[in-house]
Design a protein that fits this description.
The chain is of the alpha/beta class and about 425 residues long. The protein has helices at about 10-20, 20-30, 65-70, 80-90, 100-120, 185-190, 190-195, 225-240, 250-260, 295-305, 310-325, 330-340, 370-380, 395-400, 400-415; strands spanning about 35-40, 40-50, 60, 95, 145-155, 155-165, 170-175, 195-200, 245-250, 270-275, 355-360, 385-390.
Length: about 425
């Protein structure tokens, strides 16, 4: 397998499969593009448009042994997507025009999917979404009720959309950067959870069904630690939640740590997923760039954060939800996630005797890696950390059935404990 990408017959089969792939043709559209995949001195070029440009706009470069891992049917962590390779595998690089890559990353991603399929010796055609099916049939849709509440956020009165499902003790569910409360709909359909817990999810201002404040200009959303905490505590009061368990991931996993520090008395427990006291390297210009389609680039950037084991229906939902974000909303959230947020000087002060803290991070998360989260947990006396196998950066959205296996024991412990 290590020689596959340098083998002429494999290269010819890969190019032929790409030329016949209907999903790739649809993604490429009217693009005029040539790019290369290179392993040492050998390379393959993929052309789009009639005629295609004479020169490659960019090249994906790595040694054969790196491509061997990336082309496995189930690649190991940090080799499962082009963005993961770029951030976490030093031998991989993208040479040439970075803007052209950002504009066509969805095309390059599909070409890699086709190569992985061909390398695995599987018959064509390549599925449009080459991910596993759900292990079990979809549950019946959750019995969700929704309403608006008014909450002060950043000194402004905001209409916040909240959704609730289940009965019993409260869980407050915090969505990830640029997304909304739909991320929790499948968990809300899991009766193992909702027969004992009332789940409440809300959309931050400018996200999902929560509109900007009256008269606010598009693109002016800003998020910082104080505003985030203020908004969450306002939702707790407006929704009438009784010392909820808080569940979040990514940027909402970060704010979970801040809630544990500032307001431990207000919560029965904190479940911080994909959380670290500081994350660097996630800000890029392409999420808010006049020459890059946000509705394509942002979900592509997100798609690579999910584990390859994540079921196709869930992964498609995550992609679709991220394609619907308002202008620059995701980019401004990332300004918080990988910019303003820095709790390295204070997480050690979290008192887990007041509020239990559980930290869970997906094996395939290349942004906040399991190592990042473990290092943060080590600074907090009493914090309990576990890596989630076969999960990426969006645990409750990308693979709810598998995530529930990690979540349910924690909920049972909190339900049975004195804090519960």
């Amino acid at each position: 397998m290590s020689a596959a990408i340098t083998d002429e017959s494999f290269g010819a089969a890969w190019r032929a499969a790409a030329a016949q792939d209907k999903a790739l043709a649809r993604l490429a559209g009217a693009a005029r593009l040539r790019f290369a995949i290179e392993a040492g001195v050998r390379g393959l070029s993929f052309d789009f448009g009639d005629p295609a440009p004479d020169a490659a706009a960019f090249a994906l470069q790595a040694p054969p042994e790196v491509w061997a891992k990336a082309l496995l049917p189930m690649p190991p962590r940090h080799h499962h997507s082009l963005f993961a390779l770029r951030m976490r595998v030093p031998e991989f690089r993208i040479a040439g025009d970075d803007l052209a890559f950002a504009q066509h990353c969805h095309v390059a991603r599909r070409v890699l999917e086709i190569g992985r399929w061909v390398a695995g010796g599987r018959p064509g055609p390549v599925p449009a979404v080459p991910r596993p099916a759900l292990a079990e049939p979809e549950p019946e849709p959750a019995n969700i009720t929704g309403r608006y509440v008014t909450v002060t956020s950043g000194g402004e009165a905001c209409r916040i959309f909240i959704e609730q499902a289940g009965e019993g003790r409260d869980i407050l569910c915090l969505h990830t950067a640029g997304s909304d409360g739909r991320q929790f709909h499948r968990l809300m359909a899991d009766r193992r959870i909702t027969r004992h817990w009332r789940m409440t999810a809300f959309d931050l201002p400018w996200h999902g069904k929560s509109p900007p404040p009256s008269g606010a200009a598009p693109g002016t959303w800003r998020l910082d630690t104080d505003r985030y905490v203020e908004t969450i505590m306002g939702v707790v009061r407006a929704a009438g939640l009784d010392r909820p368990v808080v569940l979040g991931a990514s940027m909402s996993g970060e704010i979970c740590l801040e809630l544990a520090l500032r307001h431990p008395e207000a919560f029965r427990g904190i479940i911080a997923c994909e959380a670290s006291d500081n994350i660097q390297g996630r800000k890029v210009p392409w999420a808010d760039h006049p020459q890059v389609n946000e509705a394509i680039f942002v979900p592509e950037w997100i798609e690579g954060l999910m584990a390859p084991q994540s079921p196709a229906p869930c992964a498609v939902d995550v992609w679709w939800q991220y394609s619907q974000g308002g202008h620059a909303t995701f980019a401004r959230d990332i300004d918080f996630y990988s910019g303003e947020w820095d709790a390295r000087d204070r997480v050690h002060r979290i008192d887990t005797s007041c509020c239990p803290l559980f930290m869970l991070t997906g094996e395939y998360d290349y942004s906040c890696t399991a190592e990042h989260s473990a290092a943060t947990a080590e600074k907090i006396k009493g914090a309990r950390f576990k890596m989630m196998r076969g999960i990426g950066h969006f645990p409750f959205a990308e693979n709810p059935p598998l995530f529930a296996e990690y979540l349910l024991p924690i909920l049972e412990e909190l339900r049975a404990s004195r804090a519960g």
